[in-house]
Design a protein that fits this description.
8 helices; about 0% strand; about 170 residues
């Protein structure tokens, strides 16, 4: 259990380090300019336990960020499209769109076919066999991570099946 966690932590750390090294290093002047801009716009954390930035704590002290605006014509076309499609929410406490309340008034939306019930059941059973189900508790670990000795044989069989399938696909492609 600790080995899996340690290995995962090292792999995650290595991935983060490789991304950090992929970027060009900043010069001292660039860092100073970024800090100066962050202080000017209030994009630095305020002192204390609030966890807020200065521009969130004291918005009147900092310049406002320009908000993208739409023309009147753009708003009208969006409203017309929402009314035509039934995606507008009418006044009241329901919170449902007109399409949800009155589906007979609007054309049906094509839904992409999903997986069948049998496919979902097969995937669930495979996840149970492999230990890919989340273990109870607050750890968020799968059963195979928490109890690797229970699932080692099944994982080896599954890996062998995947390799055979890949070889079969490769030979069929030739």
């Amino acid at each position: 259990m600790n080995l899996a966690r340690t290995t995962t932590s090292w792999l995650l750390l290595a991935a983060i380090a490789s991304v950090a090294h992929a970027e060009a290093p900043k010069t001292r002047e660039q860092v100073k300019a970024e800090l100066k801009e962050a202080i000017r716009t209030g994009d630095v954390l305020a002192g204390g336990d609030s966890g807020l930035k200065m521009n969130e704590l004291y918005p009147q002290r900092y310049p406002h960020v320009a908000v993208e605006t739409k023309t009147r014509a753009e708003v009208r076309t969006e409203l017309a499209a929402a009314m035509r499609e039934g995606t507008i929410v009418p006044a009241g406490e329901g919170g449902m769109t007109l399409r949800d309340e009155f589906p007979q008034r609007y054309p049906t939306v094509a839904v992409a076919p999903g997986r069948t019930r049998e496919e979902v059941v097969a995937e669930t059973l495979q996840a149970i066999r492999n230990g890919d189900m989340v273990a109870a508790g607050e750890g968020g670990m799968t059963l195979s991570q928490e109890f690797p000795q229970r699932y080692a044989k099944q994982r080896a069989l599954y890996a062998a099946q995947l390799q055979r399938a890949a070889k079969a696909t490769d030979t069929a492609a030739r």
